[in-house]
Amino acid sequence: MSQPRSFRAEAVVLRHSDWGEADRLLTLYTREQGKARALAKGARKVRSRKAGHLEPFTRVRLQLARGRDLLIVTQADTADAYQPLHEDLELTGYAAYIIELLDRFTYEGEGANQAIFRLLTDTLARLAAEPDSWLVVRYYEVRLLDQLGFRPQLFECANCSKEIRAEDQFFSAPDGGVLCPRCGKGLPGARPISTEALKYLRHFQRSSYGEAKRAQPEAKIRAELEELMQHYLTYLLERGLNTPAFMRRVRESKSKAP
Predict the structure, then answer these.
(1) How many CB atoms lie within 10 A of CB 178?
(2) Contacts for 72 with CB less than 8 Å, ≥ 6 apart
(3) CATH T-level assignment (fold) for domain 84-256
(4) Is the pTM of this model over 0.85?
């Protein structure tokens, strides 16, 4: 059965780039097809009705037509602009990080994954409304890893499978989880992880967002968990992410402001 030439889709705009003289090439994450590219013809023209609806990390309702090589946007309406994310530089950085992480881990043609789409839109909405952006982002990282099949092992040693006890342990990205002191000590690439950091990581892994948001880790534990997650994600992607450095600069700038 042939696919319809034109169809409706709900999507989040991940990024865009200029195409030709007046068009815009969009990278989307759609509810219906997963990651996809689409061409918005004339979107860079001053009078374009589409342009304002097609900014990064905006949730949109689209009418799409199948072109020879690309989908073509024939109609676009904003479902949620998540406006605070466009008005605060720190929130913009966090939103860009969420988008970059999804963009790096996913590929065109993988097909629909409504759980990932829902996680993406829920996280953008939480970032726009919740006061604790750090927690929103850490929860997103943990849940995205679950959906992608990279769930770290946190309750048993990833090497010997013995139960992890309430003591400082090690985390090994190549082994995909926590190592007991016997297995982790002296192992190249194994990083220490404190009991408190592991407790919160486990909490995020097995809790709903409503339960997870009650966590109040102190600043030292927040820094430890952020560094650990960056280490694991960089290992999985085999390259560093661009947005964390930008986010650090923004935070440093805010801390120095009078």
Answers:
(1) 25
(2) 38, 39, 41, 64, 65, 66
(3) de novo design (two linked rop proteins) (1.20.1440)
(4) yes
